[in-house]
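G., the chain you wanted modeled:
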Amino acid sequence: MSFLPAGKANYKARIERAELLVQRHPSARQVLEFFVPIAKFQKEFMEQLPKLLGKRAIVPASGNVRAELPVSALAAYFRKFLSLIESVGPAPLSAHAKQFREHGEAEQAKTLTEFWKTGLQEADTADPLTEFLARAFLQPYAEFMVAALLPPALPMTVCRCPRCNALPVLGVLRIEGDGGKRFLQCSFCSQEWEFRRILCAHCGEDKEQKLPVYVAEQFPQVRVECCETCKYFLRTIDLTRDGHAVPLVDDLAAIPLTLWAHENGYTRMQGNLMGS
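Predicted structure as C-alpha cells:
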C-alpha cells in the first residue's frame, strides 16, 4: 500500500484553477470567488511559516502531527485571517468572524487548539461557522507539517488519514499504466494515500453492484461514488479524464452534484471547506 509523497501545497495552481472554473461553472461563481482570497491568504501564510516558527521543530518529537499547536506563533496571522473573512465573507460568516475576533486571544487560542486536536475526525459539527474559521486557517499549517514527514508504511487499506486521522474529503484517480490508481485525500492536511478501487471508504462494502458510480456531462472529471449499503458518497476527481484538474478546487465547483446526491438519499462522508 503506497502513500503519495507529500510536497509543498501548490496554492498558485489552486488559485488559477478557481479563477478558470468561475468562467466555466456560473453555479459555483459565488463559492469560487470567495475561495480565491482565502487561497491567496493561505499561500502567504504558508510562505511565512518558516519565519513564524523560527527554530521550533516542525515535527513533534513524538511524530504525532496533532500533538502540539504553537498558537502564540500563529496568533497575529489568525487575527489577520479573521479580518479578511469580515471583509469578504458572506454576511453570517462575516459577522461571526467579527464576533470571534472580539472574543480575545485566549478564547481564539482555545478554539484553534481544540480543532487542531480533534477537528474533521467526525463528519458532523455543532458549530460550522467556527469550524470553517479554524479549518481554513489551520489547513496550510497542517500541510506544511506533513510535508516535513517521511511517508508512513501502510500495511492495509485505511479509511482515515494515516497522518492526522481526519476523514477523507474526496478521492483522486491518478494515471498509472493504462488506467488509474485511486487515492483518498485528507480533509485536513490534504495528503493522499492509496485506496482500493472497489471499496466503500465509509463502511467497507466491496460488492461492485452495491457501489454505483455516477458522472454528469457538465463535470466529466468528477465521479460521484455511492454506496447502497451505508448510503454515503465520496466525490472523486478523475485525473485520467482531465489532467489539468486540481482536486480540491474541482470539488468546490461541483455544487450540482452535491444537490443531486442529497436528493437521492446519499450523505457525504466529509464536506469540503465551503460545504459544496
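The chain has two domains: 11-146, 168-268.

Shout if anything looks off.
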